[in-house]
Structure formats: C-alpha cells, structure tokens
Specification:
Phage_phiJL001_Gp84; seven-stranded antiparallel β-sheet; Elongation Factor Tu (Ef-tu), domain 3; DUF2163 domain-containing protein; 3 helices; mainly beta; single chain; Phage_phiJL001_Gp84_C; 6% helix
Length: 277
C-alpha cells in the first residue's frame, strides 16, 4: 500500500441491525459486504492506542443528515453503543487493508448541526466492576434473573396511553390503573409505540392528583417526546431495601443484599461500653 492509494473507511452497526459505511476516499469502496460512501457522514480523529489492556481513545465527528446519521435518531438513542470498525485500505485493491480500530460508540453529543461521539475500544468493559458487592441493599435489578420476580403476573407493571405531557418529562393521566400512592417512584417509564419507541426514563415522582388522576415525573426529559395515544409501560419502583422487597414485592427469598451487615460507622468507630470497644 502506498500513500497515494491510502484511504480510511468506517463501518457502524446499530443494535437494530442498520449498517452504514463511510470513507474519506472520493469514490465508494466495497468490501466485507458493505458499501462505504464517499460523503461527510462521519470522520474521525487520529487514534490514541495504548499498549496492553489500556482502552483505545478517540472521537468520531460528522454532519447530521437525513440519509446518514440524523439528529432524531441520536436523540432517540438509536446510535448508543453501536458497533464501530475502522480500516486503512488501498482503494485500488480493497483486499489490501488492515483493521485499525474495533469497538463501539460511547457518549454522543450534538451541536450546530454536527454530532460528536466517543469511541470505546474492546477493552472498555474491563473498566467495569466485577464480582459480588457485599452491601445491605439488593444488587439485583427488578425482574432480572437474580430477582426472579414476574413483573407481569405480579402486577408490578402496567401499560397506559399518553394523555398530557409537560416539559418532556411530566406525564398527567386522568384515568389511571389502580395502584398504591407513590407505587412507581424509582421505577421506569418505557415508550412502547410512536417515534419515541424504546426510549425510557427513571421515574422521580408519582403523585396522586385531586379527582383521581395521576402525575408521573421523570428525572429528565426523554430525547424525543411521546405523542398523545402513544403507549407507555410503567414499572414499579424498587429502592433495593430488604423491607421493600418483603412488604411491597413479597420476594425476600430472592433478596440479593445483606441487610444485617454492620455499617461502616459500626466498624470504624468503637462504641464505649459495647463489644466493639
């Protein structure tokens, strides 16, 4: 490969299977079953690659356009954690190429008609904590394989249609399924239909209104606002405490915390006249 025939190519694959290819060459390239388009949908800074297990560090940038990476899709989170590969390739013979980066998109930001996305290398998961954490509160997620709670059969989730929405995060309902006050605080709201489908947010407040209505407030607005008649799913809130697991969910058998674990104060500050002294 010579410098006169050297080019770069990027492949990005969303979780829903959509694949896009881009190149800084002035003509389209084809290899690995992908067509790499010669437009400005995406470019990337030089990679900073570490030795050993250090995480590759770089950034991708590009213009927001309807036929490539749209602002609406970014707001909807459809590009979150998308797979990304980058090659150096001889455009005169695409069989001569080498993979220079493999990883995923991290945090995506947008401004002035452009987007910027952090690139995360394959070693990024090594930054995550591993092993069991010994803590008074439960380490499971409500309804997962460790919790084992059947959210549907247990009545711990409900579906409802959007009526009113304020500031992109406050939902008001005149008719609401029978549920105890503050039942959904700390839970999750997920959009099931419409352009905002698959977006979800953490529920901050669940307030019973005068007349029997309900107000569900999120901690922050969704990337795209659901429209009236779009369907939502609300999942009950769980604060991970043993008392909540026992009284609200009747699931203490699967509680994954250690409620009788002494506190740090108990361990570090000896009590006068006690066995800790």
């Amino acid at each position: 490969m010579t410098t006169t025939t050297w080019a770069r190519a990027w492949m990005i694959r969303r979780k829903d299977g959509l694949v896009l290819g881009f190149t800084d060459h002035d003509a389209a390239l084809n290899f690995e079953g992908i067509r790499f388009r010669p437009d400005h949908g995406m470019s990337a800074r030089a990679l900073v690659q570490g030795s050993g297990l250090s995480v590759d560090n770089s950034e991708a940038a590009g213009a927001l356009s309807d036929d490539a990476i749209s602002e609406r899709d970014i707001l909807a989170g459809r590009w979150d954690a998308a797979e990304l590969k980058m090659w150096e390739v001889d455009w005169s013979d695409t069989g001569k190429r080498r993979l220079t980066f493999a990883g995923s998109l991290g945090e995506v930001s947008r401004a002035n008609g452009e987007f910027r996305a952090e690139l995360r290398g394959l070693a990024e998961p090594l930054n995550s904590a591993r092993g069991r954490v010994f803590h008074p509160r439960c380490s499971a997620r409500l309804g997962d394989g460790c919790c084992k709670l059947d959210l549907v059969a247990g009545g711990f989730q409900t579906e409802i249609v959007v009526e009113g929405l304020e500031d992109g995060r406050i939902f008001r309902f005149s008719q609401f399924p029978d549920a105890a006050p503050r039942w959904f605080e700390g839970g999750v709201l997920r959009v099931l239909s419409g352009e905002a489908a698959d977006l979800q947010g953490k529920i901050k407040n669940d307030v019973t209104l005068k007349g029997g209505g309900r107000e569900i407030e999120l901690w922050q607005s969704l990337g795209l606002s659901p429209q009236p008649s779009d369907r939502l799913r609300l999942v009950a809130g769980c604060d991970k405490r043993a008392a909540t697991c026992r009284q609200k969910f009747n699931n203490m058998l699967n509680f994954r915390g250690f409620p009788h674990l002494p506190s740090e104060d108990w361990l570090l500050a000896p009590q006068v006249g006690s066995r800790n002294g």
